[in-house]
Structure to design on (420 residues):
């Protein structure tokens, strides 16, 4: 079996803002990647000002976690002086790596921040070992491989490469070749390779025949509409041993624009799966509860992408089974008050008597009931609305950044008269 270039494969997790950074680290990330307010391919996530990047680096390093900063746009000539200034400021903050795609930006980084390792984005479309060798000669320490490669191809590249190989393990997939799409530019005047993609591939479409104006004919449809270009999400939870065997050093989760419930769920599952693999590589097996958890979050079906050299190959889209609980994210645990009481930031309406589940890292979810609640001033309340803070009596210990989910139904039965 091929040994990854590091002792243990790295779980690399997106952090779209500081809250997501905290959640990513709480639920088991080995490293996080984040973007500044400019020069990143996710301009519509919260992102970080320079002083926030400094805080993020300190926060992560205090917990033994690495931070990589994305500067992966394809720049225009007029932007290069500003990118140079940004690089110099970024280099002083001490991130563990800068992720680039544009050769011009790479050259600027080499000149101005030679002490910061450079990682190459999947946008650079690296598809063979000679390309990886070229980027190594240019000073790159790690390459995120092109999404269209199979694991056999990645393994061949890894065996000949002297730098680290990174690959995506979970998340949304772009329909365009290595993410180089012009749809957003044409349809919304928002340039996808400059961090402003409007995701037109996920819009609803129908076919109209020239002489039948107003008659919309769906192509392929589900209960949410028609999506001509929409690919399924990548999910490689079943194939972690194969990815490690292929020589992948870092497993990357997509999703800087996803919410904290999505992030916590995915990171928690993959953390447990990776740890389970290293505990007993020969007997690694996907646990049913992992699939249940991954199917509780927003998704467009799951597939294994191109990793098995068949674009049509898809992993089963596991549906909820009888007896599976349906959940709604209702809140995040905050640091306790001075008297040691549990404090929760409410994100969705909840009430006394709700059956809930506590999502904590590195342990099974724990079910309980909200026994009573007090508002921020200590007054007893029966309901809590979003964007408020309450003191819930859960009867179980919690830690800051644990998430609380309401159990809406069990085995198809309505809970509290609601099924949604």
């Amino acid at each position: 079996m091929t040994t990854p270039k590091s002792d243990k494969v790295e779980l690399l997790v997106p952090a779209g803002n500081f809250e997501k950074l905290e959640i990513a680290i709480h639920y088991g990330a080995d490293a996080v990647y984040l973007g500044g307010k400019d020069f990143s391919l996710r301009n519509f996530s919260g992102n970080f000002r320079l002083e926030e990047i400094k805080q993020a680096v300190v926060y992560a390093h205090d917990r033994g976690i690495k931070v990589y900063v994305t500067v992966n746009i394809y720049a225009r000539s007029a932007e290069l002086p500003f990118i140079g200034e940004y690089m110099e400021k970024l280099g002083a903050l001490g991130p563990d790596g800068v992720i680039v795609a544009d050769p011009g930006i790479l050259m600027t980084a080499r000149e101005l921040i030679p002490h910061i390792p450079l990682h190459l984005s999947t946008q650079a479309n690296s598809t063979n070992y000679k390309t990886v060798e070229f980027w190594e000669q240019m000073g790159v320490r790690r390459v995120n491989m092109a999404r269209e490669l199979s694991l056999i191809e990645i393994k061949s590249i890894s065996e000949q490469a002297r730098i680290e190989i990174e690959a995506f393990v979970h998340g949304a997939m772009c329909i365009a070749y290595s993410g180089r799409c012009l749809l957003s530019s044409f349809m919304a005047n928002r340039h996808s390779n400059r961090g402003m993609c409007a995701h037109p591939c996920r819009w609803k479409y129908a076919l109209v025949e020239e002489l039948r104006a107003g008659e919309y004919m769906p192509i392929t449809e589900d209960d949410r509409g028609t999506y001509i270009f929409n690919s399924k999400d990548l999910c490689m939870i079943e194939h972690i041993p194969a990815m490690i065997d292929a020589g992948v050093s870092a497993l990357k989760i997509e999703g800087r624009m996803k919410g904290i419930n999505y992030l916590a769920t995915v990171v928690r599952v993959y953390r447990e799966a990776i740890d389970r693999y290293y505990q007993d590589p020969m007997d690694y097996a996907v646990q049913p509860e992992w699939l249940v958890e991954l199917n509780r979050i927003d998704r467009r079906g799951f597939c294994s992408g191109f990793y098995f050299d068949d674009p049509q190959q898809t992993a089963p889209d596991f549906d909820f089974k009888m007896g599976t609980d349906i959940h709604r994210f209702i809140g995040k645990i905050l640091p306790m008050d001075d008297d040691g009481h549990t404090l929760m930031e409410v994100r969705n309406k909840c009430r006394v008597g709700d059956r809930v589940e506590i999502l904590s890292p590195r342990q099974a979810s724990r079910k309980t009931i909200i026994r009573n609640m007090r508002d921020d001033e200590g007054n007893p309340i029966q309901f809590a609305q979003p964007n408020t803070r309450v003191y819930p009596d859960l009867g179980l210990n919690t830690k800051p950044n644990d998430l609380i989910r309401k159990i809406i139904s069990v085995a198809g039965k309505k809970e509290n008269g609601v099924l949604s």
Q: What stands out?
A: The first strand starts at residue 10 and ends at 14. The two ends are 46 Å apart (CA to CA).
